Amino acid sequence: xxxxxxxxxxxxxxxxxxxxxxxxxxxxxxxxxxxxxxxxxxxxxxxxxxxxxxxxxxxxxxxxxxxxxxxxxxxxxxxxxxxxxxxxxxxxxxxxxxxxxxxxxxxxxxxxxxxxxxxxxxxxxxxxxxxxxxxxxxxxxxxxxxxxxxxxxxxxxxxxxxxxxxxxxxxxxxxxxxxxxxxxxxxxxxxxxxxxxxxxxxxxxxxxxxxxxxxxxxxxxxxxxxxxxxxxxxxxxxxxxxxxxxxxxxxxxxxxxxxxxxxxxxxxxxxxxxxxxxxxxxxxxxxxxxxxxxxxxxxxxxxxxxxxxxxxxxxxxxxxxxxxxxxxxxxxxxxxxxxxxxxxxxxxxxxxxxxxxxxxxxxxxxxxxxxxxxxxxxxxxxxxxxxxxxxxxxxxxxxxxxxxxxxxxxxxxxxxxxxxxxxxxxxxxxxxxxxxxxxxxxxxxxxxxxxxxxxxxxxxxxxxxxxxxxxxxxxxxxxxxxxxxxxxxxxxxxxxxx
Length: 498
Ligand code: HEM
Hints:
This protein is mostly helical and 498 residues long. It folds into 3 domains: 4-102, no CATH class; 116-304, no CATH class; 311-375 and 403-498, no CATH class. The protein has 17 helices and 2 strands. The protein has a two-stranded antiparallel sheet with strand order 1-2. Bound molecules: protoporphyrin IX containing FE. Protoporphyrin IX containing FE (HEM) binds next to helix 5, helix 12, helix 15, helix 16 and helix 17.
């Protein structure tokens, strides 16, 4: 690797050599390098005996490791040799640098042990396409839940489950299986075979889409790893995401199983639906996988831009310390959006949106009565088993369950979190207007503000109309769009390494 400490002593003779011989474009880039005198900058440089296009040479941030040719030449001022050594170095390191900057054919033997400095752009495109696919499946999953289709397939088989019923007998057999479970017996008793085909198709489509995401993520990940097209950091993130994708498949079935539980039949008041905890975990994992894919995709594009030195004007604005408060608060906003979305999954899981269909008041009050919000009915089912002596004897334990199981409290929490998120986004947006920011960052801030407004409006409309499928599905898509805007902003505000 070239260490900039080594380049410095050679700069003067190279500059005069370049002045005399090199084409003006190559020289101007070289002199701009010299002026900035920065590590991790790339500069064009014409090989003296080559007629080819100027090629990109990398100057790395790290000092030359001891014992290498570089460290042997470090501090060398014997100028004629210096140039020769530099050119030799360009030959020996050229392959690796080209591979980074142009994405030329890689081979593991031309790379350093640490892998390439920038992942291939194709990795970025693939991650973005995967993120789009996850966005789609989240919306499809929402519609599947809203059309009460999620419990229509009562078995899970990775391979055999891919084949949908074809003949009328197959359909009848599937319908008969469905009839054994609480959802049919309690809610869908008058369902026809044609209606069953629709809900079956929704759930089958969701599962097939999930399989496709698994396949189109894991196979390319293995290929790119084999080819060495990813940096170490990107590779480890990609494999964590692959793990999340597999986990999500298992979690999906674990969630569906909770809605097929036969004990639901024992309690006359019980509603056959999946556990809100498992639904929230399923949505949360989808959001995490999406975040990983999208953010890593953006990082790959940035790695390439940094390697090509395409970010300098952007860097000077974004790296300013005046931007630090904005940088930090956008992290907070992203967390807030994530937790608001999770609380929304609890609203959806408990059908809590059907309750209190007014806004901003809930049952004519800003805050529902405390006995509704904090009801002993949702406390631990066996309070006497508790050993918590810090509580009064007549006070049931596990009152915290109200936060996650009481539909009134869950809806109230979602409203409060949503309005907090909206207010925080508005404050950050207004604050950012005073800052000199690159245009892309400013536009993303506009988008974030607009999406937050749209999302709150959609949420209110969903509530006022008692959760119609179309509005609720768009509200779900809105939450992931809002997260996307905030992740984009987080990425744009990330300091660029100098
Ligand atoms: C930052 C703002 C908001 C975000 C990020 C957000 C996010 C979400 C998410 C992710 C869901 C789950 C959807 C599903 O699993 O199908 C949800 C559901 C819901 N949200 Fe919001 N929400 C926001 C604001 C609001 C507001 C202001 C209201 C109304 C006051 C609201 C009312 C609802 C309702 C009623 C549901 C249940 C819909 C259903 O059953 O499918 N949301 N929200």
